[in-house]
Each structure stands twice: as structure tokens, then as C-alpha cells.
Specification:
Membrane topology (chain A): Multi-pass membrane protein
Distance between the termini of chain C: 43 Å
InterPro entries (chain A): BP-dependent_transpt_permease (IPR050366), MetI-like (IPR000515), MetI-like_sf (IPR035906), OppC_N (IPR025966)
Strand content of chain B: 15-25%
Strand order of the largest sheet of chain B: 6-7-8-3-9-10-12-11
Structural class of chain B: alpha/beta
Shape of chain C: globular
CATH architecture of the largest domain in chain B: 3-Layer(aba) Sandwich
Protein name (chain A): Peptide/nickel transport system permease protein
Oligomer: heterotrimer
Pfam families (chain A): BPD_transp_1 (PF00528), OppC_N (PF12911)
Shape of chain B: globular
Largest interface: B-C, 33 and 33 residues
Distance between the termini of chain B: 32 Å
Order of helices and strands of chain C: EEEHEEHEHHHEHEHEEHH
CATH class of chain C: Alpha Beta
Helix content of chain B: 25-40%
Largest sheet of chain C: 6 strands, mixed
Number of helices of chain B: 10
Keywords (chain A): Cell membrane, Membrane, Transmembrane, Transmembrane helix, Transport
Number of domains of chain C: 1
Strand order of the largest sheet of chain C: 6-7-8-3-9-10
CATH class of the largest domain in chain B: Alpha Beta
CATH topology of the largest domain in chain B: Rossmann fold
Order of helices and strands of chain B: EEEHEEHEHHHEHEHEEHHEEH
């Protein structure tokens, strides 16, 4: 039997699609590895103790002794950034793990099942989306102790519905694919269909979204820290550093600029990685 | 043979999504020798196929499976007996095709995958490939192998070859014709119906407008729509196909749905025609006699 | 200088050294219809796109003249003018070529103004009439028209802009047969009335046999047979052409 494999006519066309080169994605991945390593190895890398205010060395500009300068109470900014990465990354990972797990589970069920099951899940989702995120977090903080765990809970509570929506719309479209109908006609039970066909084929945008969201979570946790609901002094956290340093921007730019850059670089790296994932996870592109 | 009731049949089913019906009051028996369901886009043919597969419940009427309606039937047995063959895209893009084929097989029977692949004319080695690593014709054969895995007695074929190149299409049709199962074939392609189905039904706007032996139907249509369809198919070296009537005219909401496109429409067509017996077939047209001459 | 509107010699299109289409000779004169037939992967669409300089990242050699413009050496600007007005491309998926948020009338008016067509209203009305479309359609958005209507609109746009050549890539394969008949009817009439040159890429030999004067049969990037449609399809000399014909249902 002759095997015409992939047609030369479609291949060149695919090549014309705008594509982020793989090298770029690899660069993002390397950046993330660097950021994660820096955070994990902070106790060994940091030139100074994390909480060591020296009133006489307040607001020193960057120099050989303090590469990124010192802050308003005389702590080394580089040290604070290295340690702050631990807090910020932990918050991001925790929030996204909780949101994705809850959101995607509910989403694929809603999207596949349709009907009243979908209606119930999506209405609950809408209720959560209707609450202003900060208000809900404030309420939570009143009940709970402010701190990193509260931040995680507060952000996750307002974050998961987006994953539900994303997963539900993906799953609903997957559920109409002929291969899902074929599985149903073979008598495969619904939970297995969801697990084998709907979930894996809905995941790509979720993974991409996760990478793209990492930066957003870090920024949101910064906002909560500012309101006194998040990480508390003396915990080092990027958002907290930016918020505390922002009034000093015109006079002592380094206090806010370096933690800001840390957030930017990390968010950017996750973004690039997200794009790379999108390409790599597409089975039609993986074979090239 | 024809004395027996068909194993699977639609009895005055009206089908739709939400409230709006797209198939109206259709009765079709899946008899021996292959049954064709001919229609263009929007005719409701795929909706009917989904109902026959138990994927869509009728708004009214029933799908009968033996002497039970599908609502009450033993679905485990039904799922073994009746299998779909959709277009080649009906494979999970992430799943190796061997896994797809084995999906519904009990663990002990998974060793049959190579045999199934051979049965549809594929190299058993291909089991480890993913769908995008196969050609369109190979994918279509995998879809057929998956359907055959559970040993069905009836295949519901929904446009099984329309996405394929002609030479590949011819070979897949040979394969389908050689299979030892009953079949309901849904297509817009008259030549494919001629090849695989003894009986055919022509659907227009969710209604059966003409039913009968396929050969008679195509040689000598009794409904103006069947005739328009047949005449529109280009023939090798023949005259250019001619469009009769305005194809963009939407199906009429009352009376004969085809009347706004029909070159023979008369005042009487504002009354919906009941299907009636004309020269050995069922035709829903007031002017069937004029079409036949 | 010949009077062919499309003229290609020793055309060879390759991607990264791999030749995907090789056409030694292709001529389409005014009022003529030439068809390239073949299966997927034969290089037929690539050939058509290369004639308008629309293949990206491809290495093309040979000579191509369309409406007198040397496509392979022309400036991007000259190519845009050629594609915009004198040589029109009609694609398989008619809706893909229409911007979803623009009414058809607005789209056509803009295109005509861009190309300095005078008497826009009359030109539009006449073009719509020629493809048998109701003028009311101009008020609609692309999603509000059927595939056959969108395809005829694409043809109307081409003739309103004064196209002398229409290059059509599977223009009817996404359409129902009854609708296909209508679109083909429009193309045939325009060809006769306006002396349009028509280059048709299709997998459907039966369809091609009813409309084309000459046929090129392509397989795996090469032209295996060419000649008058009647001869090639009635007495094919190449085994592949025979195989194609025998496969016809």
C-alpha cells in the first residue's frame, strides 16, 4: 500500500506561521532555572543575613559592597531579593497548583457533562468571579492571620474560577469531537472518557496559562502585602519590597527597581516558557 | 428476508438540539444490503446518525433496537452491535492508534490489535504511531479497525471517505464493501451510495423527500431535489453540471420545504406533501409523476 | 511576447532544497481554462501560489509572467498591484478571505477605491449581478452568507476590480454539489463573456473534464501528463492518469 505521509503542500505553509523560535523558549527555561536556583540557594548565595538592619547603612546606592544598594532600614537589597524569590515563587506555585487542580477538575466535568451539571458549576464559578478579589481577600484576612498562607488562600480562592472557565470551554469543544463520540459508542464510561480523552486534550492551554499567570500571581501577592494582608515584615517578598520602596523611586531608585526587575524577569521567563510549551505540546509540531 | 423487522430503525423521530428540531418526523429502517442517507450540509443527516448511535435522544418518536427502544435497550449489547465509522479525524490526536483501537477491548483481547490492523490492510507496526504520523487513508483504516474491534453487526458510516484522495477513497470503499456487516451510510456523495447501499433515502432540510432502491432512485429520480442532486454531479467528459433553481433559497418553513428552490413548484406545494408510493418508492412531492417523465 | 495571460517556463518550487513542484510549461490565454489536477501532496496548490509570488520561504526558479508582469523579479509593489486587480485568487475556503467584522459591501467598496475604480456603485451592482447575487447581500457580514454565496462574492470582487485572470484553488470542494454547479456555471459564463483566463486547481477530474480546455496532471511535484482535456481524460497515456480515472466512483 502506498503511503503518502505528510504532504509537501502543507508543510511549507506551516513554516510561514509566526513562531517563537525554540531557542527563545529554551532561554526562558534557563532563566527560570536560574531564578529557582537563586531562590533555593539563597542562604549560600546571599552576601548578608536576610534580616540584618543597619541604621547607619540606610539607602546606600549600589556599590561593590552592596551590588543592589541597601533599603530604608539598611538591609542589603540583593540579599532581600534572593530570599524574596523563595517567598514569591512559593506563593506562585502554591496558588497555581491549588487553582489549577480545583479549577481544571471542575472545568472538565462541567464542559464534558453539560446540562445542569455544567450550569451548577458555572454559576458557582460566576459567584466567585463576581466578588472583587481584594474584597474577598480582605474578608479572609479578617478571619485569618495575615501572612503567606493567607495570601495563598486568598489569591487561590479568586484565581481558580478562571481555570474552570478555560478548562470548561476547552472540554466542551473536545466533547464534541468525533473521537469522543467514538469512545462513547464503544461504551467507555464517562469518567474514563474525561480522563483519557478530554483532560489530556484540554491541558495545553491550561499549561500555557499557568506559565503566563505565574507573573500575575506574584504581582497580586505584592498588592496584598501592601494592604498588610500578605507577607509581613521582616519576611522578604518581592511585592512587599516594591510596595515599600515605591515612594523612594525618585530619590533612591534601586530600592524599588531591583525587586521590580526580579518580578519582571521572572514573569517574562514564565511567559516565554509558556509560549514554548504551547508549541512543544502541540502533537502536530512535536514530530518535526 | 424483508419480512423481518429491521434490527435498528427510526420510527417518526424528530431530532434537534435545544428546542429547534433539525430532523422532522423521519422513519428509516436499516435493512439488509446497506442503507444510504443522502443529503447536503444542513440536511440533518449527521444528526440522524447520532440518534441511531444513541448519542442523541429524539424530541419525539423512537429509535428501535430489536423490540426495545434505545431508552430501554441493553446498551452494553447495543454498543457491541452498532459501531460508528466517522471521518479520519475521529482519532484522539494524542493517543497511539493501537491504544485507540484497543480502548474498548478487555485486557485479554488487546493482542488482537495487530490482526485488526491487518484486517483493514495496514501494517501492524503502525500501532505505535500517532494519528498525525499516518496518511489520511491510513487514519481512515484505523477508524474502521477500531469499530471492528468489538465485533459489530452494523456500522454507521458518516462520510467515511469524503476527506480522502480519489485513489485512496477507492481502496477504502473496497475495504468497506468487503466487510461482513450491515451498514447505514451517511454521505453527500451519490457514487459512494450507489456502491455500498441497496436502499437509499434522500434528506432535504431534515425531511426524507424520497426513498427507494438506490439504483432506481439515481437512474430515475421522482423528487425534484433528488434530480437536482444527481444532475449537479459532474460526469467525466459530460456537459457542465447545471444549477436548477436558486440554491441559496432557504428551505420553506411551511408546505414543501423544497418549493422555493423547485423549478416545478406550483400553488399546491404550499401544502406539505405526504410521502406516497410512486413506482416502487416513497416520494414526498405533489409533482412526482412530472419529475419521472 | 506572447498573448498568454499566464505563462510559466521551467518553473521549479522548492523548500530547503526539496523540490515540491516542477512545471516545465504552463500557458493560459484569455478566455481559456486550464486545470491542474492531482491528489494531496502533488504540488498543484504550490504551483498556483507560486504564480502569484505567494509562496513564502520558497526558492523559485524559471520564468513566470502573469498579465505581462515578471512575477519572480517584480517589486513587492508591482506584485501587490497585480494580485489586487488584474489577477485574482479564489481560495477553497471562501470565508477565510473575508474579514469577519466587515460588511461585504464595505469590503468591496474599500477595495475598489484603493484601486482607483471610478463609478464604484455601478461597478459593484454590475459585478453582483454577474455572479447572480442579490445586491442585498452587500449589507451582510461574512458569517451571514453561505459558502456558495461567499465564493461567488469573491468572484464578484475579482471582476469588479477588473481581473483578467482568476486563479482558483479548489474553489468548490468545500461546497455542496448543487452549489458547486452554480459556482462553476458563473465561472464558465464569465470566462466566455469577459474573456477571463481561468486557472483551476482541483482534485475532481470529472468536474475538470466539464470545464477545462487543457489539463496538467501532477503527481509528487511533477507534471506527469498534459494536453487537451478531452484527449488526456479520454485516452490517458500515463499510468497515473489512468489510475486516477479508474478510481473515479
Amino acid at each position: 500500500m502506498t503511503t503518502e505521509t505528510r504532504t509537501p503542500e502543507t508543510q511549507p505553509l506551516r513554516r510561514t506561521l509566526p513562531r517563537i523560535p525554540d531557542r527563545f523558549a529554551a532561554f526562558g527555561a534557563v532563566l527560570i532555572v536560574v531564578v529557582v536556583l537563586a531562590a533555593v540557594l539563597a542562604p549560600w548565595l546571599a552576601p548578608y543575613p536576610v534580616d540584618d538592619p543597619r541604621p547607619l547603612e540606610r539607602l546606600l546606592p549600589p556599590s561593590g559592597a552592596h551590588w543592589f544598594g541597601t533599603d530604608q532600614v539598611g538591609r542589603d537589597v540583593l540579599t532581600r531579593i534572593l530570599y524574596g524569590g523563595r517567598t514569591s515563587l512559593f506563593i506562585a506555585v502554591a496558588v497555581l497548583a491549588v487553582s489549577a487542580l480545583a479549577g481544571v477538575t471542575l472545568g472538565v466535568v462541567a464542559g464534558y457533562a453539560g446540562g445542569w451539571i455544567r450550569d451548577v458549576i458555572m454559576r458557582v464559578t460566576d459567584v466567585f468571579l463576581a466578588f472583587p478579589a481584594l474584597l474577598l481577600s480582605l474578608a479572609l484576612a479578617v478571619v485569618l492571620q495575615p501572612g503567606v498562607n493567607t495570601v495563598i488562600l486568598a489569591i487561590a480562592v479568586t484565581w481558580w474560577p478562571w481555570y474552570t472557565r478555560l478548562a470548561a470551554s476547552m472540554a466542551a469543544s473536545i466533547a464534541t469531537r468525533p473521537y469522543v463520540d467514538a469512545a462513547r459508542c464503544l461504551g467507555v464510561p464517562a469518567p474514563l472518557i474525561i480522563l483519557r480523552h478530554v483532560l489530556p486534550n484540554s491541558l495545553t492551554p491550561v499549561l500555557v496559562q499557568l506559565s503566563l499567570d505565574a507573573g500575575g500571581v506574584i504581582l497580586t501577592s505584592a498588592a496584598l502585602s501592601y494592604l498588610g494582608l500578605g507577607a509581613q515584615e521582616p519576611t522578604a517578598e518581592w511585592g512587599l519590597m516594591v510596595q515599600q520602596g515605591q515612594t523612594l523611586f525618585t530619590t533612591n531608585w534601586w530600592v524599588v527597581t531591583f525587586p521590580g526587575l526580579a518580578i519582571l524577569v521572572t514573569a517574562f521567563a514564565f511567559n516565554v516558557l509558556g509560549e514554548g510549551l504551547r508549541n512543544a505540546l502541540d502533537p502536530r509540531r512535536a514530530v518535526k | 428476508m424483508t419480512m423481518l423487522r429491521a434490527e435498528l430503525r427510526a420510527d417518526r423521530v424528530t431530532l434537534g438540539y435545544g428546542r429547534r428540531p433539525v430532523v422532522h418526523d423521519v422513519s428509516i429502517d436499516i435493512t439488509e444490503g446497506g442503507v444510504g442517507l443522502i443529503g447536503e450540509s444542513g440536511s440533518g443527516k449527521t444528526t440522524l446518525a447520532r440518534a441511531f448511535l444513541g448519542l442523541l435522544s429524539p424530541i419525539s418518536g423512537n429509535i428501535w433496537y430489536g423490540d426495545q427502544t434505545l431508552k430501554k435497550a441493553d446498551m452494553r449489547k447495543f454498543r457491541r452491535d452498532v459501531q460508528p465509522v466517522f471521518q479520519a479525524e475521529a482519532l484522539d490526536p494524542r493517543m497511539r492508534v493501537g491504544t485507540s483501537i484497543a480502548e474498548a477491548l478487555p485486557r485479554a483481547a488487546r493482542s488482537r490489535v495487530p490482526d485488526l490492523l491487518e484486517q483493514v490492510g495496514l501494517d501492524p507496526e503502525l500501532a505505535g504511531r500517532r494519528p498525525h504520523e499516518l496518511s489520511g487513508g491510513q487514519r481512515q483504516r484505523v477508524v474502521i479497525a477500531r469499530a471492528l474491534a468489538v465485533g459489530p453487526r452494523l456500522l454507521i458510516l458518516d462520510e467515511p471517505t469524503s476527506a480522502l484522495d480519489v485513489t485512496v477513497q477507492a481502496r477504502v470503499l473496497d475495504l468497506l464493501a468487503s466487510l461482513d456487516t450491515e451498514r447505514l451510510l451517511i454521505t453527500h456523495n451519490l457514487a459512494v451510495v450507489e456502491r455500498l447501499c441497496r436502499t437509499s433515502h434522500v434528506l432535504f432540510a431534515g425531511r426524507v423527500v424520497e426513498s427507494g432502491p438506490t439504483a432506481d432512485l439515481l437512474a430515475n429520480p421522482a423528487h425534484p431535489y433528488t434530480r437536482a442532486l444527481r444532475d449537479a454531479v459532474p460526469k467525466l467528459g459530460g456537459d457542465p453540471p447545471e444549477a436548477k433553481g436558486r440554491t441559496e433559497a432557504v428551505p420553506a418553513a411551511t408546505g414543501c420545504p423544497f418549493r422555493l428552490r423547485c423549478p416545478l413548484a406550483v400553488a399546491a406545494c404550499e401544502q406539505a406533501p405526504e410521502p406516497r408510493d410512486v413506482q416502487g418508492r416513497q416520494v414526498a412531492c405533489h409533482r412526482a409523476e412530472d419529475v419521472l417523465t | 511576447m506572447s498573448d498568454h495571460l499566464i505563462e510559466a517556463r521551467d518553473l521549479r518550487v522548492s523548500y530547503g532544497g526539496r523540490v515540491v513542484a516542477e512545471v516545465p510549461r504552463l500557458d493560459v490565454g484569455a478566455g481559456e481554462c486550464v486545470a491542474i489536477v492531482g491528489e494531496s501532496g502533488s504540488g498543484k496548490s504550490t504551483t498556483l501560489l507560486s504564480l502569484l509570488g505567494l509562496t513564502q520561504n520558497a526558492e523559485i526558479s524559471g520564468q513566470v509572467r502573469v498579465c505581462g508582469v515578471d512575477v519572480l523579479t517584480a517589486s513587492p509593489r508591482a506584485l501587490r498591484e497585480l494580485r489586487g486587480a488584474r489577477a485574482a485568487l479564489v481560495m477553497q475556503s471562501p470565508h477565510a478571505a473575508l474579514s469577519p467584522a466587515t460588511r461585504l459591501g464595505v469590503l468591496m467598496r474599500r477595495a475598489l477605491k484603493l484601486h482607483g475604480v471610478r463609478d464604484v456603485d455601478r461597478t459593484m451592482a454590475r459585478a453582483m449581478e454577474e455572479v447572480l447575487l442579490d445586491r442585498e447581500l452587500l449589507r451582510r457580514y461574512p458569517h451571514e452568507v453561505s459558502g456558495g454565496q461567499a465564493q461567488r462574492f469573491a468572484i464578484a470582487l475579482a471582476i469588479a476590480l477588473g481581473a483578467e485572470v482568476i486563479l482558483a484553488d479548489e474553489p468548490t470542494s468545500a461546497l455542496d454539489v448543487t452549489v458547486q454547479a452554480e459556482v462553476v456555471g458563473v465561472l464558465r459564463r464569465l470566462r466566455a463573456e469577459r474573456d477571463l483566463a481561468l486557472l483551476l486547481v482541483s482534485h475532481d477530474l470529472a468536474l475538470v473534464s466539464t470545464i477545462a480546455d487543457r489539463v496538467l496532471v501532477m503527481k509528487d511535484g511533477a507534471v506527469v501528463e498534459s494536453g487537451p482535456a478531452a484527449t488526456v481524460l479520454a485516452e490517458p497515456s500515463h499510468p497515473y492518469t489512468r489510475e486516477l480515472l479508474e478510481a473515479l466512483p
